Amino acid sequence: MSETLGFKTYAPAYLSPQASGKNLLIGANFASAASGYDENAAILNHAIPLSQQLSYFKEYQGKLAKVAGSQKAASIIKDALYVLSAGSSDFVQNYYVNPWINKVYTPDQYGSFLVGSFTSFVKDLYKLGGRRLGVTSLPPLGCLPAARTLFGFHENGCVSRINSDAQAFNKKINSAVANLQKQLPGLKIAVFDIYKPLYDLVQSPSKFGFVEANRGCCGTGTVETTSLLCNQKSPGTCSNATQYVFWDSVHPSQAANQVLADSLIIQGISLIT
Known about the structure:
273 residues; mainly alpha; 3 strands; SGNH_hydro_sf
């Protein structure tokens, strides 16, 4: 998305050595692979929970003020574009495979729990000065290679019931966003729909220049994720990732992400201008 917006450099990962000095003026990346709205799931996946990411953001604000001055730092924080992408790992790497959760909560109940966490996060970010936020919807979870491997596929090569869960969650997120806009003066927030564009990629890959949409490039492409068993040297990893819709069993490839980013920018133009 940064490239699509025209940025020549990426915001550095906050915990990296690059996130210091004047580099802080271009922002920071607080994301953690396999994190999500469920704090416990993030811990189980050895990821940095959202609450800790928010703590790092507070820390970042202090460092930014030292570099730019308090007034300039406050302006940067207010005018910055924040992007929140979470939820997939909560379901695919936690809810569906964790009997301690899926025996207690229905998918709808778990989705409501996650949306509650999302709402709290947005309010906390707002208190810290954030005013422009784009949040991604859930993708068609039932079309992810991991879901196909675990549950088999049905309608149009996807797990229909899991796609239904994702659609139900997305309705909840949209409703929560509408309520937040009413509650928080000056907040500009939009849901970036990645469900439809990714579903279209999976159903008609050749239309977008892709060859493989059923499995990922990394390893076998059926179970590996970037947080588990997946890297460039994993046995079986493809040599032509640009032809794959998915990099691993959960995450889209860089080429697919570019297609998604183009769609997201169009959807969220009101946040950017």
